[in-house]
Amino acid sequence: MTSNELRQRFLDFFEKKGHKIVPSSSLVPQDSSVLFTSAGMQQFKPYFLGERSPYGKKVASSQKCFRTSDIDEVGDERHLTFFEMLGNFSFGDYFKQEAINYAYDFLKEIGLPIQYVSVFKGDKQVPKDEESVKIWKKLGVKKIKGAGREDNFWGPTGKEGPCGPTTEIYINDTEIWNIVFNEYYQDDKGKLTKLKQKGVDTGMGLERLAMVSQNKKNIFETDLFSKITKEISGQDRAKRIIADHVKGAVFLIADGILPSNIERGYILRRIVRRAIRFGKLLGLASGFLIPLAQKVVDIYKDVYPELLSKQPDILTVIQQEDEKFGKTLEKGLKEFEKLAIKIENGGTAGIGGNDTFMLYETYGFPFELTKELAKERGMKVNEKAHKEFEERHKEISRAGFEGKFGGHGLLLDTGELKAANQEELKKVTRLHTATHLLQAALRKVLGEEVHQAGSDITVERTRFDFSFGRKLTSEELKKTEDLVNGVISKDFKVEYKETPYEEAIRSGALYSKREKYPSVVRVYSVFDENTKEVFSKELCGGPHVQRASEIGRFKIIKEESSGAGIRRIRAVVE
User: Fold this and answer.
1) Helix, strand, coil percentages, rounded to 5, for the chain
2) SS3 of residue 571 by DSSP
3) CB-based contacts of 15: which residues, under 8 Å, 6+ apart?
4) pTM: predicted TM-score of the whole model, two decimal places
5) d(CA 550, CA 546)
6) Rounded distance, CA 33 to CA 159, Å?
7) Res 190: pLDDT
8) CA–CA separation, 263 vs 252, rounded Å?
9) Is the CB of residue 212 less than 8 Å from the CB of residue 172?
């Protein structure tokens, strides 16, 4: 069966068993304690804890997942960052007997005989799962292995939550299905208490199911990857890394994540750049990720139609990151090679923290890439020393910036503002506030479908990327420019208020869906003190001018395409 058939057979099976089929949630989870959705149960976590489920007590889903823990392992035959998890769940309805029977019956229905199963063998806190052993024996499964907490006890997702012993199903020495019996709640100190409501949480990787069903040697030979890998020639490990990473990137971007230097955006940037680097090792031409990303969309478009509608934006983001990293990679590889030869000639085996930080700070060369290259040459890196250099640099930058601008040092770490001295910082601050006004003006002229897709502010100009499907007319550009200069000439006030995040969103303030915000945020408003008219309102860390007149005259100097569905404006202040 194809992967699409397997997915549908699973959902149909559980729908017939009285389960509500729930669509996959976003890779950006509601749970703020985790970066990504990494398991099918995450969107249902409150219902395991007693909150009433709007879907009823029995649900099933095919959940898209992303796990960062396996990034460095990707390249072998089984590790992935992005995958789909088939799961059926019970919130206080059925328990061990029914859950095991469902799994047994489904695998029998699609013609996959169980090789063996494992159960929790017990420890000082939790007893052996004798009940599951009896159920499996009654079904005729002869080979039952006992395993400890590391293998057969799952959860919680995040710092605390529901968890419990598991029973796992193996076919062809591959773990196919993990059935979790949520009986406990683990707090943030690791203490277990019995849950009032027992639950079932199962997870079966679609990629592994496809592998055994399609009788393939590894997951990369299944129809979920073959369209991608056949387009890449060369060494298997590099091909697999590229295939996994481009797939992960497509899904992350589709869920609103863009490359950055922090949190989710950092992970996206890391996998895209890692894929580019391995493409370079295979001699692939610049831009090779674009057709591969199109293959990903083609594989999943019927199941996740949003990939097709967002394809122009996805390809644009990947193209921009490719162009940005290409220059960095070329320079950084040359410097690394010089450094490596120097170290090899000197007889030492390791690269010091000062050298790895130099590569990062001077050439923008990611530390993870330095670490990977060093490993390939049998060299060690001093990760602790690298982090110490990094923290020291941040403290120096922050102290210098806060002394001049009253505490907005963290913004510099994002790379959005670029300035070397006090005069330059004053200039980019004017441009930063002008950029807020530009976005507000564009939304007034073109409509509220306009959203920021990136920005870059230097002492010379601001560059603002935004979502819009066509070239702006000269009249639209003039109207936008006039709106900004109108606010400046009326000397609107610029101020911020610290507000709870949820309240800020309800107030209508613009924000980035791809960023993770603290519980209390700063909302910057530009408004007329007399009429109380608010022109611009955004979540932001600053820095900004205090009055609009400080900006000076605003002038748009260029409007152009920055990729499919994305326009770019360059502007200056005089």
Assistant:
1) 45, 20, 35
2) strand
3) 21, 60
4) 0.65
5) 8
6) 7
7) 82
8) 12
9) yes
DSSP letters for 384-423: HHHHHHHHHHHHHHHHHHHHHHSS-HHHHTTTSB--SSHH
Task: Work out whether strand 380-381 and strand 350-351 pair parallel, antiparallel, or are unpaired.
Answer: parallel
> What is d(CA 365, CA 357) in angstroms, rounded to the nearest whole number?
9
Question: What residue type is 267 in one-letter code?
Answer: I
Residue with tokens 């915000």: 517
Strands 452-457, 554-561: pairing is unpaired
Radius of gyration of the chain measured on its C-alpha atoms:
27
**Residue with the two structure tokens 């390809």:** 315
- State the virtual CA torsion across 453, 457, 461, 465 in degrees, nearest 10: 0
Whether 365 contacts 332, CB under 8 Å: yes
Three-state helix/strand/coil letters over 87-136: EEEEECCCCHHHHHHHHHHHHHHCCCCCCEEEEECCCCCCCCCHHHHHHH
Q: pLDDT digit string (tens) for 273-317?
A: 889 988 988 889 889 999 999 999 999 999 999 999 999 999 999
Please give the distance of CA 290 from its chain centroid, rounded to a whole number.
Answer: 19
Residue 268: φ, ψ to 5°: -60, -50
Choose among 568, 561, 238: nearest CA to 372.
238
Buried b (16+ CB within 10 A) or exposed e, 154-189: bbbbeebbbbbbbbbbbbeebebbbbbbbbbbbeee
- Are 434 and 551 in contact, with CB atoms under 8 Å apart? yes
Coil, strand or helix: which one is 209?
Answer: helix
DSSP 8-state assignment for residue 364: -
Q: Is 172 helix (H, G, I), strand (E, B) or coil?
A: coil
**For residue 405, how many other CB atoms are within 10 A of its CB?**
18
pLDDT digits (tens, 9 = 90+) for 353-382: 888 888 877 777 778 788 888 888 888 888
Asked whether the beta carbons of 116 and 152 are under 8 A apart, the reply is no
